[in-house]
Amino acid sequence: MSGNKNKTGIVIGAVAIAAIGGGYLLFRGWSKGSSLTPLQAAEIIPQDALFAGYFSTNSESWTKLDKFGTSEFKKLVVEPAKKQLEEASKENSATEDIDYEQDIKPWLGNIMLAALPSKAEEPEVLLVIGIKDKVAALKFMDKLKKEAEDTIQTSEYKGFTIIETTKDSEDPYNIAILDDKIVLAPEKETVKTAIDTYKGSASFADKKGAKEILSQTNKNSDTLFQFYIPDYTGLLKQSLRASGEDLADFKSIEKQLNYVDSMVLSVGVKENRGILMETIVKLNPDANIPKYPNIPGKVLSKIPGDSLLLISGGGIAQSWAWFVDRFGEDPDFKESLNIARDSLKETTELDLDKDIIGWMDGEIAISINPSQTPPAPVNGAIVIATSDRPTAENAIDKFEEFAKSNGAPISKKEVAGKEVTEYESYPGQVVLAYGWLDNKSLAISIADKAERIISLEPSESIAQNEAFKNSIKDFSKQNYGYFYLNFKEVNVIVSQFARDFGQPIPPEAEAVLNSVKAIAGVTTMPDSLTAKQELLIELETSE
């Protein structure tokens, strides 16, 4: 199916052809029809489908998007886009008299798209379309059936009529009506396979774990679409096969990659907040992936409140040890790791596993902040908590000896009663500074002096920043850390840079950027076999 076919054009064409071919007779009767659910669609999709995507046509959910965006965004982006969509719909429609809102929307009851294995490089595509109102659909079909009687040919298969287009020989597609559902595909054999599935052959819903992931819904937002991968390893194999890669090479690393059983990605509208994306990953029980303790987030009180970007987490030492244990026997990884270890040891006398990573067993937070000391526009801050300060200090001593032997200007001073070490690129320009905030927390400042982070008051930290707190307020507090981007402030800096260099951002792009307030994310593990990630794109509401 070519990329220039939009949703409206495909649906109009499919139903018009179905009507002409006699399939419209299946709509007769008192049955009202119903909106298509992911599970219902999966029961028609063949079992060997690689993945599927479910698209909601619920107007209430999509209408909520109208609340977001600045007036400039709607004027420069939304309105032109709607106009282009309307024009494209007319071009792809069976007749110019068709209006999506009046003729299609009343009966269209959600859509699922599936990718099936193929001998070609690209997978076969199958579309399942729900009919929620058969009466409205029949009225629409009666309106269309006089328009294109010479554009189709029909055939019978197991009691169902398959209608094939002939109007556009470069992009034909095949349609069949199965009760209150339409199945559509470029290849007739794909439609036949869907009919076989409808009549009882193994379906996508029969795959191991499929019914569980198909029932997953994003309870925190109104879902717009969901993407399902019930067999992650199988998808990788098919992708390799399609690309011509030798599967023998895949077998050497299959054990290491076989950690994910299935995956669900959903995108929805969060009331008065913006767009919420949620990914749920089901892990392979045989992988023995450890479930680490949640991160308490205490380190956030030591990061500046005006941070433009924040990434927090913890347990780097534990994760590194597990990663090396699992992937250490892979020849390519082992070679790269040994090169890194040997190179670091030869140049700095530092041991990668012990001196660099081994003591990082607590929380960590990394931030990028607006600079208060020109010429750099931004600077960085890192706070690392550890239960093994002696090992950390030993590593710092080795690093200082290496720096001194290479002529780096190093000085020490006291800030707020704490010893601070600074590295200067030239007099007065600090490129690196660090010091201990307490017995377990090392603070590192990049491209800035250490005073700000060393003497930071908790009330001035990111933990007390209202914009940050608002962005993460709906996330679970039992988590493994946050991602936060103050998009509004970053946009101000980027726009100023663009103007300074004589390359201002185009008005349309600027309207889009100005509609985003912040982006925030979190990772959680509800149980030992489930990993969950949420990402909120917080949008400006309409003026």
Describe the structure in your own words.
There is one protein chain. This protein folds into three domains: 7-44 and 57-200, no CATH class; 316-457, no CATH class; 465-543, no CATH class. Helices cover 34% and strands 28% of the residues. It has helices at 7-20, 38-42, 59-63, 71-92, 100-104, 134-144, 188-198, 210-214, 232-243, 247-257, 316-327, 331-348, 352-358, 389-405, 451-454, 466-472, 487-500, 507-513; strands at 51-55, 108-116, 124-131, 152-157, 160-165, 174-178, 181-185, 222-229, 260-270, 274-283, 309-314, 363-370, 378-385, 410-415, 418-426, 429-438, 441-446, 482-485, 516-527, 530-539. The chain has a 20-stranded antiparallel beta sheet, with helices on both faces. Strand 6 (174-178) and strand 7 (181-185) form a beta hairpin. Helix 1 runs parallel beside helix 4 (71-92), helix 9 (232-243) packs antiparallel against helix 10 (247-257) and helix 13 packs across helix 14 (389-405). It is globular, with a radius of gyration of 29 Å.
